[in-house]
């Protein structure tokens, strides 16, 4: 038991959980003691990692000695918690996040990770980041199914008085499950029913308040539009935005196509340490957002979150998806050097100098002030009327250059030879000039980390719905990834001489066999020699 994963889980995660983080969920008045928070958080981590249902989790906690040891339950007669306690705990975390915007599972993930980094001397100054898509636990609905399902949810959200008003008008759409109702409607009648539902939803959005009114407004915005005359009509399929409502059971999930695959759910940004001096690399942050979010925004979010924790990031290795004004601007704001393996935009046509072939000199504010062409001729950059930059080169020198009016971007004007430079091109060029071969292998490792975090997901589909529960699930999974890595490292330290000792012992055996073969070649049979 001392050498099992349970002991590492107990010491590196369970005992590090700061229970005061969850203090806002409980009453300050004298009352019945709550189940220990570290037991509930630890149980959630184990449940997600092993892919257990709630009932399976309950069995494991009651009968699996390793699981009990991991959760600090040392007496066999001790009953840790009832499932209802776990349900209430999740609900409190969700409600708190809805009210305050603070997900306490993300907070405890950050707190535990920071303690692990400090305890084991793991440097977080150089990190790598990547993103992945995850599917929400919702069904794919066509427009009529989405409209009927949402209307049913709107009806359930109404007060008793409101239901009495709308019950008769909605009777045809709330009498059975949405899929069964839609199945009985001929395909030729789909648009007719969508138009009828649109008129009713429009009235509900205008008259209802609370959750019912918000749901009606969201459906109306997603599927319908107003003509210039003010009439309500269905949006063309191609006009439906990726951020439109995908399911009334998960209103935050969005739509995206990536790599030829369709996703309804969220995008996840994963950051981890990557300094070669570290004995082990740990996941430092997990960011979850609707999957219409750009990777640059994920990078900006994780830099901000880690800065608030006091994590001093100096370098970050990313792929091309994180480049762009948002991600690069966030790196400048936090004084972090970006090392991309690829860069979006700025591709140069064959036969022309790329902007990266020029040398750029910046002032203290990061603005380009001087440029040197590939042939070594310098010029000063000045702002132009169209918010670009322009450099004036010597006409005589340019005319004598063999690349002028060829690969060179300089053009001849009456006032001299000019080079027009978009400001964004300078930023992209400097990024290209700073690209390093080492970052390709460094960044590739984070992909295996993402696979580990998604280990319990079948075809990238979550067992939960909603942004808050998704963040809870993936934060828990990331904590378990760190525990596994720490366990493997700690186990290697417990072995007296580790892998090096094993190699030495193998060499000793080979040396002995070789010596015997040399000294007594005829006395050894082939079996002995082998």
Description of the structure:
This protein has 530 residues and is an alpha+beta fold. It has five domains: 135 residues, no CATH class; 97 residues, no CATH class; 108 residues, Nucleotidyltransferase, domain 5; 79 residues, no CATH class; 29 residues. It has 20 helices and 14 strands. The strands form three sheets. Strands 1, 4, 5, 6, 7 and 8 form a six-stranded mixed beta sheet that branches. It has a six-stranded antiparallel beta sheet with strand order 9-10-11-12-14-13. Strands 2-3 form a two-stranded antiparallel sheet. A hairpin with a 5-residue loop joins strand 2 and strand 3. Helix 11 packs across helix 12. The longest helix is centred in the C-terminal third of the chain and has 28 residues. The protein is flat and about 90 Å long.
- Calculate Rg over CA atoms: 31 Å
Percentage of helical residues? 40-55%
**What sort of overall outline do the alpha carbons produce when their principal axes are compared?**
flat
Largest sheet: 6 strands, mixed
Mean of residue pLDDT values: 90
N- and C-termini, Cα separation:
37 Å
Total domain modules: 5
Number of strands: 14
**Helix tally?**
20
Report the uncertain regions: 522-530
Query: What fraction of residues sit in β-strands?
Result: 5-15%
The chain-level structural class is alpha+beta
């Amino acid at each position: 038991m001392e050498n099992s994963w349970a002991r590492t889980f107990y010491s590196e995660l369970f005992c590090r959980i700061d229970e005061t983080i969850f203090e806002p969920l409980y009453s300050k008045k004298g009352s019945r003691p709550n189940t220990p928070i570290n037991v509930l958080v630890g149980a959630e981590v184990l449940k997600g990692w092993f892919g257990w249902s709630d009932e399976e989790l309950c069995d494991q906690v009651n009968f699996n000695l390793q699981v009990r040891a991991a959760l600090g339950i040392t007496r066999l007669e001790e009953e840790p918690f009832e499932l209802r306690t776990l349900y209430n705990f999740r609900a409190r975390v969700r409600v708190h996040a809805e009210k305050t915007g603070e997900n306490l599972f993300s907070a405890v993930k950050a707190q535990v990770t920071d303690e692990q980094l400090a305890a084991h001397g793991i440097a977080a100054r150089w990190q790598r980041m990547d993103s992945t898509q995850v599917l929400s636990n919702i069904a794919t609905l066509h427009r009529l199914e989405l409209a009927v399902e949402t209307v049913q949810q709107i009806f359930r959200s109404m007060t008793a008085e409101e239901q009495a008003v709308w019950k008769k008008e909605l009777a045809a759409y709330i009498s059975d499950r949405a899929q069964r109702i839609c199945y009985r409607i001929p395909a030729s009648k789909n648009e007719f029913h969508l138009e009828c539902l649109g008129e009713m939803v429009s009235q509900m959005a205008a008259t209802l308040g609370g959750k019912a009114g918000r749901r009606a407004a969201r459906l109306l915005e997603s599927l319908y539009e107003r003509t210039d005359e003010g009439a309500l009509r269905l949006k063309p399929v191609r006009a439906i935005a990726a951020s439109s409502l995908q399911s009334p059971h998960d209103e935050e999930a969005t739509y995206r196509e990536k790599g030829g695959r369709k996703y309804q759910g969220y995008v996840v940004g994963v950051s981890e340490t990557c300094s070669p001096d570290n004995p082990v690399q740990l996941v430092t942050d997990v960011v979850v957002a609707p999957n219409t979010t750009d990777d640059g925004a994920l990078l900006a979010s994780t830099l901000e979150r880690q800065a608030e924790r006091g994590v001093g990031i100096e370098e970050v290795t990313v792929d091309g998806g994180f480049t762009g004004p948002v991600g690069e601007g966030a790196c400048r704001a936090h004084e972090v050097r970006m090392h991309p393996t690829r860069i979006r935009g700025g591709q140069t046509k064959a036969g022309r100098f790329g902007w990266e072939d020029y040398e750029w000199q910046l002032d203290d504010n990061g603005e380009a002030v001087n440029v040197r062409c590939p042939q070594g001729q310098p010029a000063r950059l000045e702002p132009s009327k169209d918010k670009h930059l322009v450099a004036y080169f010597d006409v005589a020198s340019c005319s004598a250059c063999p690349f002028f009016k060829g690969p060179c971007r300089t053009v001849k004007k009456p006032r001299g030879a000019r080079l027009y430079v978009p400001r964004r091109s300078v930023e992209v060029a400097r990024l290209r000039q700073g690209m390093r071969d080492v970052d390709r292998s460094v960044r590739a490792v984070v992909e295996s980390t993402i696979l580990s975090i998604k280990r319990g997901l079948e075809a990238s589909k979550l067992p939960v719905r909603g942004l808050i529960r998704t963040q809870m699930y993936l934060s828990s999974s990331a904590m378990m990834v760190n525990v596994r890595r720490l366990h493997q490292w700690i186990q290697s330290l417990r072995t007296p001489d580790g892998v090096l000792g094993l190699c030495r012992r193998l060499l000793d055996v080979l040396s002995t066999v070789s010596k015997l073969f040399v000294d007594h070649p005829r006395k050894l049979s082939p079996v002995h020699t082998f």
